[in-house]
Write a structure and sequence with these properties.
It contains ten helices and seven strands. It is of the alpha/beta class. Strands 3-2-1-4-5-6-7 form a seven-stranded parallel β-sheet, sandwiched between helices. Helix 1 (26-37) packs across helix 9 (234-243). The longest helix has 28 residues, at 115-142.
Length: 267
């Protein structure tokens, strides 16, 4: 067991490295900032928001503390390539945070959903996750552990994984698979010092959800399902992700950490 600080409680990740996918905006950017503040060296990817990525790197102290690369994530090969780039930049990989994803914003009935939309959502949200996890585990297994752990994996799913989401079957199916993946990976890897957990956010105030949250009718319906009567701030999702990568979470593996303002219990 790693020693905690003698005075106070620390969520330090000093000496650790982390790969955070989808790190240029929203939950990903908040997680990058928080991990850097905790002392980790961070590598993240972006798809198109290069200016935002560069600004975030500067905010976090610049290279080598924080680095990024442009990388699409739609296939297992994409995920493998990103892990290799992160290891080349950081020297090792202690934490993998799978945060990227797509939520097609328009309601589509299942009998009208195209093959292209289904395949695109599953490719981005699930296939690339498989490639990321496979490559990260291979790396973690071959590197020396820090304390009792060889690595930590946190998958970011959704409340849709647990209770579904009408007219967004593709998204809910991809996130439901991540919940099952978390449990499978934990039972396979925990004994080897690789812990896998899942953070499942509810509605979060991000660019991806802004269309729904700023629409008067839709927003009213959404907020009615949340006992706290508001969406989460991105930092309120990044915090639990950080916690799961610290020694304070040393006896947690295979968990689905719900961060939804009580929405699943009310739903």
């Amino acid at each position: 067991m790693e020693k905690l600080t003698e005075k106070g409680i620390s969520l330090s990740l000093a000496g650790r490295t982390a790969l955070i996918t989808g790190g240029s905006r929203g939950i990903g950017a908040a997680t990058v900032r928080m991990f850097c503040q905790a002392g980790a060296r961070v590598f993240f990817n972006y798809r198109s928001a290069e200016a935002q990525a560069r600004q975030l790197i500067a905010e976090c102290g610049g290279e080598p503390a924080c680095q990024a690369s442009r990388q699409e994530l739609g296939t297992p090969a994409d995920g493998t390539a990103l892990v290799r780039a992160a290891v080349a930049a950081l020297g090792r990989l202690d934490c993998l945070i799978v945060n990227h994803g797509v939520w097609p914003p328009h309601d589509i009935p299942i009998d009208a959903m195209s093959d292209a939309q289904w395949r695109s959502t599953l490719g981005i949200n699930l296939d690339s996750t498989f490639g990321l996890v496979r490559a990260a585990v291979a790396q973690m297994r071959q590197q020396d552990p820090i304390g009792d752990t060889r690595g930590r994996i946190v998958l970011v799913a959704s409340t849709a994984a647990q209770r579904g989401e009408a007219f967004h079957t593709d998204y809910a199916a991809s996130k439901g698979a991540m919940v099952s993946m978390t449990k499978s990976l934990s039972s396979e890897l925990a004994s080897q010092g690789i812990y896998c957990n899942c953070v499942a956010p509810g509605w979060v105030d991000t660019e991806m959800s802004s269309g729904a949250l700023t629409h008067p009718e839709t927003s009213k319906k959404v907020l009615a399902t949340i006992p706290l009567a508001r969406p989460a701030k991105v930092e309120e999702i990044a915090g639990p992700i950080l916690f799961l990568c610290t020694p304070l979470a040393g006896f947690i593996s295979g968990e689905i950490f719900n961060v939804n303002g009580g929405a699943v219990l009310a739903g």
